[in-house]
Design brief:
- It is a single chain.
- The chain is an alpha+beta fold and 387 residues long.
- The protein folds into two domains: 6-162, Aminopeptidase, CATH 3.40.630; 188-383, Cathepsin B, Chain A.
- The protein has twelve helices and 14 strands.
- Strands 1-2-3-4-5-7-6 form a seven-stranded mixed sheet. The chain has a seven-stranded mixed sheet with strand order 9-8-14-10-11-12-13, sandwiched between helices.
- The longest helix is centred in the last third of the chain and has 18 residues, at 265-282.
- It is elongated and about 75 Å long.
Length: 387
Amino acid sequence: MLQPSTTFAAAQEAVGPIALRTAVAADIPALLTIEQRSFVTDRLTRRSFHYLLTRANATGLVETHGGRVAGYALVLFHAGTSLARLYSFAVDPDHRGQGVGRRLLEAAEQAARARDCLYLRLEVRRDNVPAIALYKAHGYREFGVYTDYYEDHMEALRLEKRLGATGPSAPVGGRLVPYYQQTLDFTCGPSALMMAMKAIRPDAIELSRRLELRLWRESTTVFMTSGHGGCGPVGMALAAWRRGLRVELFIKDDTTPFLDSVRSDDKKEVMRIVHDDFLEEMAGTDIAVHNRTLTADDMADAVRAGSIPVVLISSYRIYREKFPHWVVVAGADDRFLYVHDPLVHDHHHADIDRMNMPIPKSDFERMARYGKAQLRATLLLSERAES
């Protein structure tokens, strides 16, 4: 049950029968009316509202005046992370100037805190001056811009607010790690590698699909559960080393990764051959191989020192699907690792949701392993010292 704020109580006394509650499917006709009256483009459809209110990992909030819906807020949550997103937010024109937006925003923040979320993020049209003023008055800060974001080509400002009472306002790290969204289902490894390489060598690396595919070709295991092969830790370490980076590989042993992801003996044999070839090539490099794993605290220390961890995780805790997945640790503080995830899983999520995702250290250690063999692999990338 949502707890009314003092501003809500005052408005209820002044205006009359006001209620703030969770939205339900029966509210959809009223929500569609508000969409029609509030937006010229980029309106949510009946299908989208139904999905968000009944199936998504989301919370819908409405304020009603005398039983009529005066405004709504939709907050998306992300499994495995402490991040929430204000996905959609609107007040009926007849009820503007009555504090509805302020109360709904406070309720959205309250709902995010109740789910232990550290940040609430959103996008807003650059020309929506009243909304921007509301957000900034509530402590939101701008951290990026989407160009050509809306149907009419208007750009969107990216805003966020730290909901925690203490701690730094942004991840503490040695470098600014840019974000790159993978363009294919099987290129998370190359995409994660590109983000780290660009942060370390910004003038030498261009983030492009050509590089994404080239890195995949260099580091693929050839076969995976089905379809195209994924990228193994040794192949990725070699790809980073070839581009002038200092590479440390933390992995428990030199066995062929991902073998349990295929059933065919012929495919397993091909994967072994590829892996053995990678190992032979790596023996002729100065890549440092450590037969141990990095803890979340180790990774935080490495980030503060200017290195960038590229980490293999199981996707299950985030996507509820079991496949190996590579992410980048882009920042750290005492409680969280801040992770860039190159995969944008569905159309309700934008890359704003996958940048600097705050993940509690204990949760990250549980997800940083894959398969029956509990494979744990981290590439620690930094600048290579000149000889």
